[in-house]
Amino acid sequence: MATLTPDLDFAPWHASNRRGLAGLKKKNGGKFPTHAKKAAPAPAATKAPRMYPADDVAKPLAVNTVRKPTKLRATITPGTVLILLAGRFKGKRCICLGQLPSGLLLVTGPFKLNGVPVRRVSQAYVIATCTKVSLPNVDITMFTDSYFKAAESKRAKKGEKDFFDEPKEKKALPAEYVANQKSLDAAIMPALSADLKGYLSTRFTLRDGDRPHLMKF
Questions:
Q1: Which family is annotated (predicted)?
Q2: Which of 28-32, 36-40, 123-127 has the lowest mean pLDDT?
C-alpha cells in the first residue's frame, strides 16, 4: 500500500542520520562516546545510629567568645592614689601598682600605713585621684593572679549538728605572704612624703551637703 507522502521516509536509520549519530559513531571508531563513571564515595568512618532517643537530648553549644584584655581607664596608672568604694576596706586610700593579666588592679595601702594589704581590686569599684606616687624601685613580678588564689579544697556537707559547733579558728597567713608584704612596704615608704603619709592614713568620708559628683579628686 502506498503512503500518502512517498517522499518522506520514517526508517530508524534515516532518523539517526538526520541527528548526526552515525557520523558521531564513525568519528569515535565505531562506538558512541561515553563519560567515565564517577568513583564510589568512601564509606563513612562512623555510621549514623539506627535508633534515635524519644526525648530531645541537650547538645552543648560551641563557645566562640574571645576574651579581650580589659581596657584600663586613662586616669589610672601605676602610682595613682585610689579610693576604694567596696569591700572590707571601703573608704580607704591605696596606691595602684599596676594591672594584672586578668584585668584587675593590684593595689596596696601600704599595709604599714592604713592596713590595706596587697590585693586585687576591680577598677569599677575605685575612684582615681589626681595624686601620683613615683615608684621606681618597686618590684611586683611575684604578685600574679595565681598568687592570690587559695588552694582548692573540697568541703564536706554540713549537717544539723555542725550548725551548733563552735566556729573554727581563723587560719594563720603563711609566712611567705607576710614577708612579701613587708618587703613591698619597705620599697614604697621611702617614696612617700609626710603629707602623703597623712593623706593615705585618713579614710575618705562624705558629710552633709557634700556633692561627690561635683568633687575633683
A1: Belongs to the eukaryotic ribosomal protein eL6 family.
A2: 28-32
Each residue's pLDDT tens digit, 5-16: 555 555 555 555
Q: How far apart are CA 23 and CA 16, in angstroms?
A: 9
The CATH number assigned to the domain with range 71-149+176-203 reads 2.30.30.30
Dihedral, CA of residue 65, residue 66, residue 67 and residue 69, to nearest 10 = -140
Question: Strands (DSSP E) along the chain, which ranges?
Answer: 80-84, 93-99, 105-108, 119-121, 126-132
Segment 106-135 shows an average pLDDT of 93
The C-alpha torsion from 98 through 102 and 184 to 87, rounded to 10°, is 100
Cβ–Cβ under 8 Å, residues 128 and 217: yes
**How is residue 131 written as a grid cell?**
595624686
Closest CA to 81 of 92, 67, 95, 91: 95
Average pLDDT of the segment spanning 109-135: 93
| pLDDT of 202 | 93
The DSSP secondary structure of 51-105, one letter per residue, reads S--SSPPP-PPP----PPPPPPPTT--TTEEEEE-SSTTTT-EEEEEEE-TTSPE
Q: Percent of the chain beyond pLDDT 70?
A: 82
The residue written with cell numbers 585610689 in the block is 82
